[in-house]
Amino acid sequence: MKNAIKKILPRPLLYLYRFLRIPKDARSVLSFLFHSDYRISFYQRFKIVKMLYVISEHVPCVHTQHEMLAVIGAILSFSPESQGCVVEAGSFKGGSGAKLSLACKLTRRRLILFDSFEGIPESEDSHDRNIYGGKAFFKSGSYCGTLEEVQNNISKYGELGVCEMVKGWFEDTMPEFREPVIVAYLDVDLASSTRTCLKYLYPRIVPGGTLYSQDGHLHAIIELFRNSDFWEGELNSQKPPVEGLGKQKLIKVIKPDHSGS
């Protein structure tokens, strides 16, 4: 089959065919390296890519490099004149935190990490299956990374100096959070936890800022993001468009700018 395709396609289309057959992570790496909107050098981009793979090799990570590069790209492309930090909710062992801290260091932004550091809380959430047909069961205490583990992994592979750890359950710690946010990254598994994060973090996101959820493949999360009553009743906001909802794990919301500028 491969040889037949090579004989049929003209050379330019053959190159395109080969490129499209490259795994998504590899394509994202190439796009990241040659993206024109990032305000860092090619060497700095290359160093980030290298460290992403080093971190994934040494720290358990449940995301792909494609997904993490999307979040990092949002951090790097945001206007440096705008005030705001980056927030991560759900840190596991610190792999994603280490990766995001590299971008925060280059852009001189703080990374605030919210986590219980005790794993997933007790919940009545019932996921059953995800959109791919796989099991989606989250036991209390699973995906636990202790505060010391997360700090050690970020210290070893990332930039601990830009990080602030906020230990505790989201409903106890997030109500006191008051800082503007340019990018928020949620990886919390439960609809109840996602609801809390949206309630307290979405209002803090600056116009044009981005909120990502790593849990877009879970039906309960999809229902929450589609729930107009939740957005209007609890967030006093019109339900925004959600990129990738119902189609992929990493979903994206860009905060609308109603300033008219």
Task: Explain what you see.
The chain is built from eleven helices and eight strands. The protein is an alpha/beta fold. The chain has a single domain, classed as Rossmann fold, CATH 3.40.50.150. The chain has a six-stranded mixed sheet with strand order 5-2-1-6-7-8, sandwiched between helices. It has a two-stranded antiparallel ribbon with strand order 3-4. Helix 3 runs parallel beside helix 5 and helix 4 packs antiparallel against helix 6. The longest helix is centred in the N-terminal third of the chain and has 17 residues. The chain is globular and about 45 Å long. The N terminus is likely disordered.
The major sheet is characterized as: 6 strands, mixed
Structural class: alpha/beta
Mean pLDDT: 88
State the name of the first-level CATH class: Alpha Beta
Q: What's the CATH topology name?
A: Rossmann fold
Q: Please report the distance between the alpha carbons of the first and last residues.
A: 53 Å
Number of strands: 8
* Strands ordered across the widest β-sheet: 5-2-1-6-7-8
CATH superfamily: Vaccinia Virus protein VP39
CATH architecture: 3-Layer(aba) Sandwich
Order of helices and strands: HHHHHEHEEEHEHEHEHHE
